[in-house]
Design a protein that fits this description.
single chain; 232 residues; mainly beta; four-stranded antiparallel sheet; 0% helix; 53% strand; disordered N terminus
């Protein structure tokens, strides 16, 4: 007798239990369990699952009065977007931005984001990727020291959920121009927004069809361009 516990079906036999490693992902079915291993601890799920995205570089550089974060992938399958987070203690992180991923690619793809609110001292950054099914993978952290925002006017352009964001460190109050071009170089979007002295986050909803566009930011001091993938 088993003191009230259910008996093990005879057809299961006494096969050796199947080993499940930390990197295994999928549905567990038909695992044979012997009497000696009837009550082990099993972990079958995780919120962070290995995804078909191969990251070959994640780096940071102090330049243009801020911190430029860059990452390169060698392969992407069904990738949705990247999330950049920042912390001043290495434990408590806040989201800086979401950047749309290319989706599917077998070529090297490089992304970048400029943190123009960099602070004196040590800052921690981490990168994660979320696929189109909502599964996420967290990559390693970066530690950056003494990248402080200075007087040079600088910024970055990125997209998320078919919206276009511009982070801009402006040296003065001004009107800035935003232009969008299709792959043939035709101007298909034009906007003008106010930017105050200091840090600004400008958001646009260009209402364009899915595709790759070139967005241009023009200020009184500088200009920058960025290829953006918009997805409906």
């Amino acid at each position: 007798g088993w003191n009230g516990f259910p008996s093990i079906p005879s057809e299961m036999g006494t096969n050796t239990p199947t080993a499940i490693t930390a990197t295994s992902v999928g549905t567990l079915t038909g695992v044979a369990v012997s009497a000696a291993n009837f009550f082990p601890d099993w972990t079958l799920a995780s919120t962070l699952i290995v995804l078909p995205v191969t990251l070959i570089d994640f780096s940071a550089a102090c330049e243009n009065g801020g911190t430029t974060l860059s990452w390169t992938t060698a392969q992407e399958t069904n990738s949705g977007y990247y999330t950049i987070e920042k912390s001043i203690d290495g434990l408590n992180f806040k989201v800086l931005a979401h950047v749309n991923a290319i989706g599917n690619s077998n070529l090297n793809t490089t992304y970048s984001y400029i943190d123009i609110e960099s602070a004196k001292g040590i800052s921690y950054y981490r990168l994660s990727e979320t696929d189109k099914n909502g599964k996420a993978k967290l990559f390693d952290k970066l530690v950056v020291s003494n990248c402080t925002a200075g007087s040079p006017e600088n910024g970055t352009i990125y997209s998320y959920h078919n919206e276009v964001f511009i982070n801009l460190f402006s040296v003065t109050n001004q009107q800035v121009k935003i232009n969008g071009y299709d792959v043939t170089g035709r101007l298909i979007y034009k906007n003008e927004l106010f930017a105050g002295e200091g840090f600004n986050q400008l958001k646009m909803v260009p209402a364009l069809a899915q595709g790759i566009y070139l967005f241009e930011l023009v200020t009184n001091k500088t200009s920058l361009t960025k290829k953006i993938l918009l997805e409906n």
